[in-house]
Design goal:
The protein is of the alpha+beta class. The protein folds into two domains: about 130 residues, Ribosomal Protein S5, domain 2 (2-Layer Sandwich), CATH 3.30.230.30; about 70 residues, Alpha-Beta Plaits, CATH 3.30.70. The protein is about 30% helix and about 35% strand. The protein has a five-stranded antiparallel sheet, sandwiched between helices. A four-stranded antiparallel sheet has the order 9-10-8-11. α2 crosses α3 and α4 packs antiparallel against α5. The relative contact order is 0.18.
Length: about 210
């Protein structure tokens, strides 16, 4: 995948398996941002409150905006969250979270056994899931005068941008999303059509993300 394109899950998926009496429940889902990923982890914790561990890994975004997080949740360091994250990295996946819920069965798995089991949690989810290709988007807020809004909207339409929100106040604020590979061209055109007086702000993600 290029820095602008990546793969993710089409929908939530869950798999279950046992390793030496330990029961594993692996759940993966597409997410739109870091907050959504953390909320998903908490949802799984609430669903299985008596589980021994809830290790997780997620990747959000692409290129310079990529965010990666992993948690072993009290398993030995590097044996749970990291193996799952490494698998996601190797597959070029993003905008998804994997939570591996473990019920300890009384037999210790050892460092190698834990690493293999948690990596399998991520792999099994990917094998059971439908994957889709996505393109990295740039979300930006642009503020211009009323005299310039018409030209801006025409430019956004010509570049295939999605207008997410508009606010007509003393000036006009537009929030739009477009393929990141076109962001540089749009910013250049924005400076030209606003004659350098407009305000451009690149956002971390969709509004209320």
């Amino acid at each position: 995948m290029s820095e602008y394109r990546y793969r993710t899950l089409r929908e939530e998926v869950r798999v279950r398996f046992n390793v030496n009496n330990s029961r594993f429940i692996a759940t993966a889902a597409p997410v739109s941002g870091e907050e959504a990923a953390e909320q998903f982890v908490e949802r799984i914790r609430a669903e299985f409150p008596d589980a021994t561990h809830h290790a997780y890994a997620y990747r959000i975004g692409a290129g310079g905006s990529l965010v990666e997080r992993a948690s072993d949740d009290r398993e030995p360091a590097g044996t749970a969250g990291l193996p799952m994250l490494q698998l996601l990295q190797g597959e070029g996946l993003s905008d998804l979270v994997v939570v591996a819920t473990r019920y300890f069965g009384g037999i210790k798995l050892g460092i190698g056994g834990l690493t293999r089991a948690y990596r399998h949690c991520a792999r099994a989810c990917l094998e059971a899931a439908a994957l889709v290709e996505r393109e990295r988007l740039c979300y930006c807020r642009m503020i211009v005068s009323y005299g310039e809004i018409g030209a801006l909207l025409r430019q956004l339409e010509a570049m295939g941008a999605e207008i997410i929100a508009t606010d007509y106040a003393a000036e006009v604020s537009v929030i739009a999303a477009l393929p990141y590979r076109l962001a540089g061209s749009l910013r250049k055109r924005f400076v030209e059509l606003s004659r350098g007086s407009g305000l451009w702000e690149e956002l971390e993600g969709p509004p209320d993300n």
